[in-house]
Design goal:
Strand content: over 45%
Order of helices and strands: HEEEHEEHEEEEEE
Number of strands: 11
CATH topology: Lipovitellin-phosvitin complex, beta-sheet shell regions
Distance between the termini: 20 Å
Oligomer: single chain
Radius of gyration: 19 Å
CATH architecture: Roll
Number of domains: 1
Strand order of the largest sheet: 5-4-3-2-1-11-10-9-8-7-6
Structural class: mainly beta
Helix content: under 10%
Amino acid sequence: MRSLGGAALLACLAAASPLEGQGVILQLRPRAGDTLRVRLDQTIEISRSNKAEEEAPEPADAASLVILARIAVEVADLEGSQVMALTDSVRITSSDAYATSPTLQAARALQGQRFRFRVQPDGGTTMPESGAFGGPVLGTLFSQLPATLPREKLVPGATWVRAVEFPLAAAPDGRGTATLNATFRFDSLSRSGEYAMLSVRGRLIRAAQMPGGAKEGYVQTSGDVTGKIMIDLRRGWIADARSVVTLQSLVTSSKGPATRVRVKITQWMRVL
């Protein structure tokens, strides 16, 4: 909602740090005046079936997105930071059937857009400008830790549980979030004490009417999230975050047989 890449890199990142025994506070506190260049790579695969669950689904629709953005920290205080984001470029490839989906249309509209938001130390974000967030596509770019970080000092090995609204880039009912019940773990601290490595495993659940009301159908969604997140404690920002979200939805309607929808979202966000 993740892997940091090769085993050698993981071993290096997990090396013991002299600060481990003292504990550290995991928080997002970028400094005023800093500008971060961010890249998001995301793939979406969607398959549907009206058949029995054990039978093969229809061929999957697929899309891939690459978003490049700059994040300028305008103001920083004890309550958090005000940030201006500029979407420099959006590159999309997709199957023909998925090309006109609301998710991809929203992503295309982000090209060249500017918007402000506030980042709280625990990872939560708020958007003072109505409608500026651009939906779940940008939610995945700037909300990798939606209000999940504890306030107290932690040592590697610590775990905590959170229930939060998690941004989704694709869902059968078109809504952009689902409730995530997740366990987070502080896996390790780099030898220099500069980087903190976290992991997350959780379960997504949601039940709602389809757009248009009950006559259009009802969707029940569940799924899993796994991920790895690296926080740059010196810069006060997420340096690298990778996740895999798998969703299974059952859409029922009086207009026809129930439809099973399977969605897999793979994403990688990092500071360049």
